[in-house]
Amino acid sequence: MFGIFKKKNSEKRFGQYLEGISLLAPLQREYSTIKNLSSLKKKVHLLTMPDLIAAGPFCSKLKEVEVQYATSGEATKLVGSLSFDEFIKRVMPKDNRKYVFHNILKDPIACSLIPELIPMPSFFKKKTIRDLRISRLFAGGKYSGTHLHIHSEALNYLVSGKKLWIMFPYSDKNNRFVETKNMRYGQIKTSAMQWFLDAYTELSEPGALDELQVFIQHEKEVVYIPAGCHHAVVNLEDVIGITYSWV
C-alpha cells in the first residue's frame, strides 16, 4: 500500500514540476518538406506529420502480433511477451512499469506490416525496412519511459500519446557530465519519471550541458534524433509508435 501511495505522490509531483520548467523546443519543420537527410544538418528536429496513420487502424492491423515487453526505463531488458492487442488494452492502462520495445526486424509479420502502415521516408538512402540497423514498435503507459541512452540516427514516429524528451548532443563536455553523474544507460535504478525529478536541476544548471533541449512531442509528430545524441523520454500519456534507425 505504501508503494502505491509513494508512486501516486511522485506522479502528482511530476505533473506540478513540469508546469514550472522552461521547455526548450528543437527546430521544427513539416515532415513532407524534407528532401534529404543532409537538410536536417544533424540537429534535433520536431517534424509535423498530419497524415501519419491514426491509432485505431494502426493497432487493428497489428493486434495479433506477438510483442516483447521490457521493464520501463530499461527498454532492451525483455521480461515477457503477449499480443499487441492484449498489451495496449489490458496491460498499458494499468501497469506503467511495462514497456513494449519490439524488434520489428526479427518479426517477419511485423516487418511486412509496419512499412505499409508507416512507409519508409522518401529521403532515406535505405530502400527497405530490412536495410535499417533496427526498427522498433513501442507502447507504454502514462509515466513510463526510457533512461538516458544513445544510438545511431533515428526517426521516432508518435502514432498516439504525448512524450517529454530530454536531449543533448554527443560532445566531450556532455559525455563527461553523463559519466561523472552516473547517468549512463544501465546505471539509473529509478523510473524514468523519478530520474527526471531528481536530475533536472543538475541538467538545467547554466553551463552544465551544451545545447540541452527539453520538449514535448505530440501524436502525428516525428522526432529526428542525430547519431550519438543523448536522450531520455517520459511518457505524459499512454503512447504508441515506431522507430526507424540506420547507419
Question: Any overview of this molecule?
Answer:
The protein has 247 residues and is an alpha+beta fold. The protein has a single domain (2-246), classed as Jelly Rolls. 26% of the residues lie in helices and 33% in strands. It contains 6 helices and 13 strands. A 9-stranded mixed sheet has the order 1-2-11-8-13-6-5-3-4. The longest helix is centred in the first third of the chain and has 18 residues, at 2-19. It is globular. The model is unreliable at 1-6 (pLDDT under 50).
Brief overview, please?
This protein has 247 residues and is of the alpha+beta class.
Mean model confidence by pLDDT? 92
Tell me the number of structural domains: 1
CATH class, anyone? Mainly Beta
Residue runs with pLDDT of under 50 for 5 or more positions = 1-6
So how many helices? 6
- What overall geometry do the principal axes of the alpha carbons give? globular
Query: Mind telling me the CATH superfamily name?
Result: Cupin
Give the strand content.
25-35%
CATH topology: Jelly Rolls
Structural class: alpha+beta
- Write the H/E string, N to C: HEEHEEHEHEEEEHHEEEE
Which strand order does the major sheet show?
1-2-11-8-13-6-5-3-4
Please provide the count of β strands.
13
CATH architectural designation: Sandwich
Name the helicity range: 25-40%
Sheet with the most strands, sense and barrel status: 9 strands, mixed
